[in-house]
Specification:
Number of strands of chain A: 0
Pfam families (chain A): PP-binding
Oligomer: heterodimer
Shape of chain B: globular
Protein name (chain A): Acyl carrier protein
Strand content of chain B: 15-25%
Distance between the termini of chain B: 19 Å
Number of helices of chain A: 4
Radius of gyration of chain B: 20 Å
Domain Carrier (chain A): 2-77
Largest sheet of chain A: none
Mean pLDDT of chain A: 94
Strand content of chain A: under 5%
GO cellular component, one term (chain A): cytosol
Largest sheet of chain B: 11 strands, mixed
Number of strands of chain B: 15
Function (chain A): Carrier of the growing fatty acid chain in fatty acid biosynthesis.
Helix content of chain B: 25-40%
């Protein structure tokens, strides 16, 4: 697992209070991990904070799964 | 009109987490007021408060995680945490957790707060100034809104009846209980969870009430002696934090399900001073009329009241004005009634005070015990021949108890609770 992937998963576990084993790449924040729309806003803020990136609203709307988040952050950190 | 009884109690106060723990410490003349150590008070005139002490659980220490998971705690202000905790205790005590939709539809929530999420507002203002609007949590607004205690409690227990909140400063808790009882009387609901919560012990809260010259400042070195209603040395109120909630229930509904009945809500009276934004009118007319209206509603004569839980905040003006109003209503010796201020032990819980004191009044009826007025060592000259239950609790059979709450803006509420045979 890349450093980014590990950090993203750690943030998801902490913010959503879910079991680490559930936070797989394909997991949807809302459908699989019990997040609501406010939780996802907060998650995106936590990613911005952790990785020092800015995630615009239109990009944030497309981050639906753990993999989406990892990919976006890896892309924008290049 | 339908009769309304109390079937559940819940308390989080500076005397601890849980009703029985609170009550035994109160009867034991213990104080929950101490030096503030959670924020800088070096430049504040008042450096003490009634603070809810946290711990891992047991011994009456408040453990937030016993009520909400850590990830949920991050989404709410402390006043909501206290409100949810007190409501949770009250609901479990009542045993009313219906699974069927019809019962859930007939159960409502009416819990208020005087100020709401002051700490959240203050901290978020720091954040927006230092780091800009993009760092504001999506949970900031729902964390700070006063009616969100009622929201959280309804979601927690699926109570889908009337969902409401009261904001009347220091009379909030009393108005919440009185108004919720009326909703049951008028058949809008069969069961209501009602009360108040407050968590304004923060720099902004202490500084604000200090600026209004409302707080005690002369006892920073001896916190437990600072709240001293009717004592000659009193110099202002001591702020407290916490929550109190009751479960109110239509009498036949409670009897049918074999619920434990603590007392009946027999009287509720309200008035406005129409005088000043923070100071009570010198003649105590507002409080007088609230008490009179409550007695009328309860259909009781003044000499039938055994115990009065006073608003009694320990301010130089307010204490004697209230006592004057009670004397005018009940006679110079209060018709033999006893009166005490439990704020002497927990401080002034603002929007939670009326609910917390209603619960202490109900427990006084249950156990035939008068809670004491701590620190009442040398009563003010014109107190006269009145039993203010100084220093020590004592036994007394109580059939009817009256609880007063007065708030900034000149708002007054009196509740009467009666033993149910």
């Amino acid at each position: 697992m890349s450093d980014v992937a590990a950090s993203v998963k750690k943030i998801v576990v902490e913010h959503l209070g879910v079991d680490e084993a559930k936070v797989v790449d394909s997991a949807s924040f809302i459908d699989d991990l019990g997040a609501d729309s406010l939780d996802t806003v907060e998650l995106v803020m936590a990613f911005e904070e952790e990785f020092g990136v800015e995630i615009p609203d239109d990009a944030a709307e497309k981050i639906l799964t753990v993999k989406d988040a990892i990919s976006f952050i890896e892309e924008s950190s290049k | 009109m339908r009769r309304v009884v109390i079937t559940g109690l819940g308390l989080v106060t500076p005397l601890g987490d849980g009703v029985e723990h609170n009550w035994s410490r109160l009867l034991n003349s213990e104080s929950g007021i101490k030096a503030i150590d959670s924020f800088d008070v070096s430049d504040l005139p008042a450096k003490i408060a009634g603070v809810v002490e946290e711990g891992e659980g047991g011994g009456g220490l408040f453990n937030p995680s016993a009520y909400l998971e850590p990830k949920e705690q991050r989404k709410i202000d402390r006043f909501i945490l206290f409100g949810v905790a007190a409501a949770d205790q009250a609901v479990r005590d009542s045993g009313w957790m219906p699974e069927d939709e019809e019962s859930q539809d007939r159960t409502g929530v009416l819990i208020g707060s005087g100020i709401g999420g002051l700490t959240s507002i203050s901290e978020t203002e720091d954040l927006i100034r230092e780091r800009g609007p993009r760092r504001i949590s999506p949970f900031f607004i729902p964390a700070a809104l006063i009616n969100l205690i009622s929201g959280h409690v309804s979601i927690r227990f699926r109570f889908r009846g009337p969902n409401h909140a009261v904001v009347t400063a220091c009379a909030t808790g009393a108005h919440a209980i009185g108004d919720a009882a009326r909703l049951i009387m008028l058949d809008d609901a069969d069961v209501m969870v009602a009360g108040g919560a407050e968590a304004a012990v923060c720099r902004l809260g202490i500084a604000g009430f200090s600026a209004a010259r409302a707080l005690s400042t002369g006892f920073n070195d001896a916190p437990e002696t600072a709240s001293r209603p009717w004592d000659d040395g009193r110099d202002g109120f001591v702020m407290g934090e916490g929550g109190g909630c009751v479960v109110l229930e239509e009498y036949e509904h409670a009897k049918r399900r074999g619920a434990k009945i603590y007392a009946e809500v027999t009287g509720y009276g309200m008035s406005g001073d129409a005088h000043h934004i923070t100071a009570p009118a010198a003649d105590g007319n507002g409080g007088f009329r609230a008490m009179k209206a409550a007695l009328k509603r309860a259909n009781l004569a003044t000499d039938q009241i055994d115990y009065i839980n006073a608003h009694g905040t320990s301010t130089p003006l307010g204490d004697m004005i209230e006592l004057g109003a009670v004397k005018r209503l009940m006679g110079d010796d209060l018709g033999g009634a006893s009166m005490s201020s439990t704020k002497s032990a927990v401080g002034h819980l603002l929007g939670a005070a009326g609910a917390v004191e209603a619960i202490y009044s109900v427990l006084a009826i249950r156990d035939s015990m008068l809670p004491p007025t701590l620190n009442l060592e040398s009563p003010s000259e014109n107190v006269g021949p009145v039993d203010l239950v100084p220093l020590k609790a004592k036994e007394r059979k109580i059939k009817h108890a009256l609880s007063n709450s007065f708030g900034f803006g000149g708002t007054n509420a009196s509740l009467i609770f009666s033993a149910v045979d």
